[in-house]
Amino acid sequence: MTTVYDEHLDYWLKKTQITKPFFKLLTQNVKSSDVIVDLGCGGGRLGLFLSNKTAYVGIDFSEKLIAAAKASIPEATFITGDLENPTTYAELPDSYVTVSNSVFRKDSCRIEKILPNITPTSNLIFRIQGQDDLPSVLEDRPFYSESELRALLPGAILFHERYTQKFSDYNYFKRAMGRIGLCAKNKPNRKNINIIRHYILVLKNSP
Ligand SMILES: C[S@@+](CC[C@H](N)C(=O)[O-])C[C@H]1O[C@@H](n2cnc3c(N)ncnc32)[C@H](O)[C@@H]1O
Fold it and tell me: What is the residue with the minimal CA distance to atom 11 of ligand 1?
């Protein structure tokens, strides 16, 4: 299947870092003996940070990103499939920890369609773009609000991750500023192209 993510393949494959708060959440809640299932794994970015790569299973519907992930982590397992389709989960082991970085959105990857497919004993560690995060506002990408996530994931602990991002694309920044109404207060100039990003980190341990 060719997806919109394939159009920006190089961009996704260049992203090899994960943020400090998410890294901390992962390392504090994943044991080296755990099997990790990464939903929307892309090029396998999270797998590269986990110590036991043989117990890493990445799932994504982009064949090209899965091929790149396989090349980076040959010892891991990868499944090509749509996360909203229950058959994608057929080969998963009985017990695992579910992780995901920046995948759930209300139009193409709905968390409510995904949760019923995950084993109930799985701990969940998700990083989800917030509803007021810049690309959501600028490009009309529908992300979840904190209250929606609380309703969908009762008992989960939510953390807010905000950071300053310096934009390399001045025109994108100018459009963003105009769109979110900050032009008057915060007039963009080529030296001032910082914007606050917003993600929600989710930790839910199985009961
Ligand atoms: C924003 S990228 C993040 C990739 C990866 N998690 C990372 O940290 O680099 C979102 C990924 O989710 C995948 N994806 C989005 N919706 C999906 C769906 N319904 N089924 C399977 N994969 C999906 C895309 O192909 C893409 O690789």
Answer: 40
CATH topology for the 4-164+196-204 domain: Rossmann fold (3.40.50)
Site residues for ligand 1, CB cut-off 6 Å: 3, 5, 12, 15, 40-42, 45, 60-62, 65, 82-84, 101-103, 108-109
Alpha-carbon distance values, 78 to 40, 100, 196, 199 (Å): 11, 14, 34, 26
CA–CA separation, 133 vs 77, rounded Å? 32
For atom 14 of ligand 1, which residue has the closest CA? Answer: 40
Containing 148, the helix (H) or strand (E) segment is helix 146-152
Which residue minimizes the CA distance to atom 26 of ligand 1? Answer: 42
Give the Cα separation of 180 and 137 in Å (integer): 7
Task: Tell me the pLDDT tens digit for each residue of 12-47.
Answer: 777 778 999 999 999 999 999 999 999 999 999 999
